[in-house]
Amino acid sequence: MNAITPSSAERLVRVPLGERAYDILIGPGLIARAGAEIATRLKGRRAAVITDENVAPRYLDALTASLEAAGIQSSSLVLPAGEKTKSFEHLIEVCDAVLTARVERNDAVIALGGGVIGDLTGFAAGIVRRGVRFVQVPTSLLSQVDSSVGGKTGINTRHGKNLVGVFHQPDLVLADSDVLNTLSEREFRAGYAEVAKYGLIDKPDFFAWLESNWKDVFSGGPARIEAIAASCQAKSDVVVADERENGPRALLNLGHTFGHALEAATAYDSRRLVHGEGVSIGMVLAHEFSARLNLASPDDAKRVETHLKTVGLPTRMGDIPGELPPAEVLMDAIAQDKKVKSGKLTFILTHGIGQSFVADDVPSSEVLSFLKEKHP
Ligand code: GLY
Q: What topology is assigned to 11-182 in CATH?
């Protein structure tokens, strides 16, 4: 058999975290090359692949064949798709599958799927045998540009999302750009909100580049791989600066405070709102709120809204189908999410495009009056 060679379009982003450093490969055909890429980096020759019912029919056989061709023996566990899978119950199932597969420390646990599978599998990899090797093969745009990189893993509990977990960095991330061709437009757009977020955090040139090149990103041209690589590089920079989220890593939450409140207000009903759509509306609100506090020009908020609207993302609370609860209820959701300290909230605000900062003294009364104005 001919060796499968990397495409010239492929990009490599290195996450330089000392002994936890790892590579992110981005490009076409990476699932077919996964076995070879893993075999050159990890000593073990066993793997447990964790995936879900939506992803397995499309990519599990190709991944298994590629592992086998590289001399890696694998077994697989196919879980139900959806956020509910990030649970204690499924964590037990994954740990059990990893132990049954006799995966040892130098072998690999492989997450094949989106953020739910990545977060759950990473958590299991972090605790089985006090930590085994972990490879992410993200299959959504959102997981390729965000959740597969950074090492935060975990599950949801009845107390809230992502409240139980560990930091466990992957040993390798293989972001196969071909898999994005089968995503729905809506899912791709939702992931794009996180791509745009990196520009808005601290890369104004990247945001301007997206304004000019977004069509090529959506149509799968060369700009798509560039956009994913730039996003992974941006995430890597933030993670390297603050791996355990003691400070600047909070910038990654731009748009997420309002976004999470809207997700909670729509009871996480994906027919009404998915995470990236909440982030899109949240980023516009964060820019408008910053303008209201005289920190930024209202023109910047308009520019953000124009771009997100142009790509087809929702940008206003009124874009969400169905009724939203009153501003006071949205405010309660924000307060729960953010922990209010003496009436003050921590918020990601901005001085303009690509000039966001962490503000830890935002009066909750200001947030409430802003929300009332936006959602009378
Ligand atoms: N796993 C996602 C993150 O660390 O941000």
A: Rossmann fold (3.40.50)
